[in-house]
Amino acid sequence: MRILIHTGTRDCLNLGDVAMLQATCRRLRELWTDVELMVLTDAPERLAAVCPGSIPIPAGGLFPWVAERFLIGRAHRWLPARWSEAAVAAKRSVGRRWPGVLDAAVDFKLRVQRTDRESVTAFRDAFGAADCIVVCGQGSLTDGARSEAGEICLLLNMAAARRKPAVLFGQGIGPLRDPELRREAQRALRTARLIALREQRVGPGVLADLGLGRDRILVTGDDAVEAAFEAKPPHTGAAIGLNLRLSRNSGLSPEHLPAFGSAIRRACESVSATVLPVPISIHENGTNDAFVLDRFFESSGWDGREIHDLRTPAAVIRQVGRCRVMITAAYHAAVFALAQGIPTICVANCDFFEDKFLGLAGLFGPGCEVLSVSSPNFPERLCSTVFQHWEQADEFRTNLLDRAALQIRWARGAYERAAGLLAGRASMTARA
Question: Is 370 helix (H, G, I), strand (E, B) or coil?
Answer without folding.
Answer: strand
